[in-house]
Amino acid sequence: MSSRPYDNRAWLGVLPVVLIVAFSAVIPLMTVVNYSVQDILDFNSRFFVGFEWYRETLNDPRFVDAFLRQIGFSATVLALEIPLGIFVAKGLPKNSRMTPFLLVFLAVPLLIPWNVVGTIWQIFARADIGLLGVAINAMGIDYNYTSEPMHAWLTLVAMDIWHWTSLVALLSFAGLTSIPEPYYQAAELDGANRWQVLRFVELPRLKGVLTIAVLLRLMDSFMIYTEPFVLTGGGPGNTTTFLSQYLATMAVGQFDLGPAAAFSVIYFLFILLFCWLFYTSVVARDE
């Protein structure tokens, strides 16, 4: 047994990370929590109101509607992007000269800024000049995402799928390439078809990367703001007004700092809760 004293100076290397996280996350969060229990009239006039803003937010019908729309949107894009990403990844060649070029091409939508994505689809889906809008109307479908709520919703879902399916596909491709070849050879000897190979060989080995993909897409879809703001402005009506847009209107447009701060805390806790429930269920099934 060594008698040398422990040297804890190595923890000093972690100190910069702790300071950066405290400055970029913890301190702003505590500031928002502080604002959420106050009625702020101006810089020098503020009154403690306790949980009044929290009760008001949870009882606000506009918050409930935006929350339900957010749940529906996140569930829809996850249900479509995860299987589609796996399908695209399975279609990519693993050992080919074209593979690097295909991966770079696949990652192009991920490199486009969110506001540019909204602008691209705003033009692309226009019923008068957009390639997609004109093509749909030429098929005899009266398509106009600026006036029809269902068309706006479907256009927003299609835009998100185009933007983020590549992420799922790249993660799935990385997982597929890590599966040893003997697994496939054993499945072939057992006479397994493609569906059985996917179910019993590939999906179990993809569980780790798919968990990461679902968590990333769940968090990102729940925080979506720029794309629907640019594409539809939250309309028509409130069809595509999600929690982030409602929060921005409250904080920036109306400058209600107290209610907006309480809204932000609730928003943050919902995202944290959903991610924790999903991760816990996955870990519990593994155990």
Task: Give an overview of the whole structure.
With 287 residues, this protein is mostly helical. It folds into two domains: 8-48, no CATH class; 53-286, MetI-like (MetI-like fold, Orthogonal Bundle), CATH 1.10.3720. The chain contains twelve helices and two strands, in the order H-E-E-H-H-H-H-H-H-H-H-H-H-H. A two-stranded antiparallel ribbon has the order 1-2. Strand 1 and strand 2 (45-48) form a beta hairpin.
In short:
This protein is mainly alpha-helical and 287 residues long.
Total domain units: 2
**Given the C-alpha coordinates, what overall shape results?**
globular
Termini Cα gap: 35 Å
Structural class based on helices, strands and sheet pairing: mainly alpha
The helical percent reads over 70%
The CATH architecture of the largest domain is: Orthogonal Bundle
Strand order in the sheet with the most strands: 1-2
Spell out the helices and strands N to C.
Answer: HEEHHHHHHHHHHH
**CATH C-level category of the largest domain:** Mainly Alpha
Stretches with pLDDT under 50, minimum 5 residues: none
The CATH homology group name of the largest domain = MetI-like
Descriptors for this entry?
287 residues; mainly alpha; MetI-like fold; two-stranded antiparallel sheet; 72% helix
